[in-house]
Amino acid sequence: MARAPLLQLSGVSLGFGGVPLFWGLDLIVHDGDRVALVGRNGSGKSTLMKVMAGLVEPDAGSRTLSPGATVGYMEQDPDFAGFATLGDFAAKGLGPGETWRIERVAGGLRFDPALPVASASGGERRRAALARLLAAEPELMLLDEPTNHLDIAAIRWLEAHLAAARAAFVLISHDRAFLAALSRATLWVDRGQVRRREEGFAGFEAWRDATWAAEDEARHKLDRKIRSEARWAVEGISARRRRNQGRLRALAGLREERAALIRRQGTAAMELESGPVSGKQVIEARDIAKAYGGKVILRPFSLRVLRGDRIALVGPNGAGKTTLLRLLTGAEAPDAGELRLGTNLEIAVFDQSRAGLDAEASLWENLTGDPVMRVPGQADQVMVRGRPRHVIGYLKDFLFDETQARAPVKALSGGEKARLLLARIMARESNLLVLDEPTNDLDVETLDLLQELLGEYAGTVLLVSHDRDFIDRVATTTVLLEGDGRATVFAGGWRDMLAQRGSEPFSEIGSEAQASRPKRKPDVKRDTPGTGAAPPALTFSERHRLDALPEKMERLSAEISKLSELLADAELFGRAPERFRQATLALADRQAALEAAEEEWLDLAERAERDA
Q1: Angle formed at CA 268 by CA 264 and CA 271, multiple of 5 degrees
Q2: Higher-confidence position of 407 and 3
Q3: 30: β partners
């Protein structure tokens, strides 16, 4: 039996300033859906989510909500007017005696409900908005970048909380690991259309690339047909042309079809060029320590950074990551120990607060006003790695158009601000990059490009990030800060650190995350007396899911078998490297999906056995 839709959009069209953002869009969210909403920056993901929430009225089409269903939306910029504390805001809509819900999520999200609104930072306000949504427990949650301003510990708590939730949810996030862990379906916003795939985000990139490859092939076929028909129109006999007006009209139709095709937006043409070669030893810290007002921020810590190293600093907010970053770069002096910086260092800094950008000034003014980029006597030129470039041309490299060049920075989205800051950083030569949360708000394609650039960069990188996937892709060394001044060095990225450590960091978060994951069926029953309450009975949608999973697992197993057989061809890589790459990605996607389906089926089957 098909699941009932919670929310349905039919024939939705929406445009701003005459430019259509969506047209004829159809979309359904079912009970129990766990959906990743993905797309390029500026593709309209956030606007679409606001339409789903009923906050933006479309120009055409309809929004239908299931009778009695509740929808919660996490606001990006919530209005705190009239609220004294963050807790007051988060508790709005809760009944008497339900404020415990706020306390429950406040610990996981790491915000203080008693904090006055007037003194709260932007990140603390966003956490309060997220707490308000989670505490309300609507049947459908719409979450737009919920992991922004969360540290790794809070992200893992949120991941566990959503995994255990019964509500349906739609997620927008730049965090690959977060999306892959939670999603079971993917909505892809691309040039005004939305495609849906009944698989999680883990296989999105392979699906996207295959879709684009098929699209390119169809475009090439159409171009060839147009050229062939146009040749006939020029070379054909006049009388024949008079008798074949239908063919000429068909040619005109083909040209109209080709003109209507919307080309994909290219990736940013970012370049990262290292400056003069630094000394082999970039940083040597020996037993450096730091405290503020009696509070220990860093206990004696030693680290040696060599040219070409990629060092990731990870840990919860307040653990001392930024302080350690400042100590390692010489921006702040340690209370004890010794710090030596290498020779010939040229440092470029990406600041997560975007403090280097003037929000009131235009993009043009932010570039030409930079002392490093200014070209004397040339108001329309900027210096890019030692060469003058026109401002507009350089902005286009980072996917900004001419109309945005004179607009104020405050009108940009978070992802656009990050790209503008990258434009300033990448205009200068450097041999030591300091990147403080560079991944916030960037889309998947830009993250991929940034990762490639860092891989090819001849200099050294110090990186602070909460994005586990990005750390895995970039870091050669991970420094884990767990609080109380402790910092431990591990070789490799996030997963390497977990393997070497032998246990999850932030144990109070890790235990909850483990508890929320489906477990394999044990050999003995777990509902013995004294073990606590039994799991709740299966809902209707869960029973339907239990019935449908075996067919899905059988299909995935068949696809894995076919892909494995294809990849067994030893000559495939040399003969068709792109096909080999796509097949490899697809195999990993199917294997991950099968494992998740098996875990889910075992959990549901065990609960169904208890109900019997």
Answers
A1: 150
A2: 407
A3: 5
Mean pLDDT calculated for residue range 192-201: 87
H-helix or E-strand spanning residue 292: strand 281-292
CA dist., res. 367 & res. 218, Å (int):
41
Of 291, 290, 292, 287, nearest to 334 by C-alpha is 290
Interatomic CA distance for residues 364 and 470, integer angstroms: 30
221: pLDDT strictly greater than 70: no
pLDDT tens per residue, range 320-346: 898 999 999 999 999 999 999 999 898
* Least confident window among 147-161, 214-228, 232-246, 359-373: 232-246
Residues 64 and 50: their CA atoms lie apart, in Å, by 14
Contact 431, 345 (CB under 8 A): yes
Contact between 580 and 567 under an 8 Å Cβ cutoff? The reply is yes
- Measured CA to CA, the distance from residue 200 to residue 182 in angstroms comes to 8
The DSSP secondary structure of 15-29, one letter per residue, reads: EETTEEEEEEEEEEE
Q: Identify residue 81 by its one-letter amino acid code.
A: A
Confidence of residue 216 (pLDDT cuts 50, 70, 90): low
Using the CB atoms, write b or e for 371-409: b if 16+ within 10 Å.
Answer: eebeeeeeeebbbbeeeebebeebbbbbbbeeebbeeeb
DSSP state of 3: P
311 contacts 462 by C-beta, under 8 angstroms:
yes
Protein fold of 5-206: Rossmann fold (3.40.50)
Kindly report each contact of residues 47-50 with a partner whose C-beta sits within 8 Å and lies 24 or more positions away, as own/partner: 47/14, 47/21, 48/22, 48/189, 48/194, 49/73, 49/142, 49/144, 49/170, 49/172
Contact status, residue 92 vs residue 58, Cβ threshold 8 Å: no
How far apart CA 287 and CA 535 sit, in angstroms, is: 50
Position 366 confidence tier, pLDDT thresholds 50, 70, 90: confident
**Dihedral (CA of 556, 560, 561, 565) sign:** positive
Q: Per CATH, the architecture of 540-611 is what?
A: Orthogonal Bundle (1.10)
CA dihedral 304, 310, 316, 320 (to 10 degrees): 40
- Owner of token pair 């509500």: 167
Round to whole Å and give the CA distance between 297 and 266.
44
Query: Can you tell me whether residue 423 is helix, strand or coil?
Result: helix
**CB of 333 within 8 A of CB of 341?**
no
Tell me if 139 sits within 8 A of 493, measured CB to CB: no
190: CB partners within 8 A, 6+ apart: 39, 40, 43, 264
Question: Which whole-number Å values give the CA distances from 63 to 6, 10, 24, 504, 542, in the listed order?
Answer: 11, 7, 13, 43, 26
Residues 439, 443, 444, 449: is their CA dihedral positive or negative? Answer: negative
The amino acid that residue 181 corresponds to is A
Beta partners for 291? 296
Return d(Cα 498, Cα 152) in angstroms, integer.
13
CATH 1.10.287.380 domain locations along the chain:
540-611
Residues carrying CATH 3.40.50.300, the chain: 5-206, 281-507
Q: Quickly list H helices, 139-203.
A: 152-164, 176-182
Pair of tokens at residue 288? 């450096």
Determine the topology of domain 281-507 in CATH. Rossmann fold (3.40.50)
Measured on CA atoms in the order 452, 453, 457, 459, is the torsion positive or negative? Answer: negative
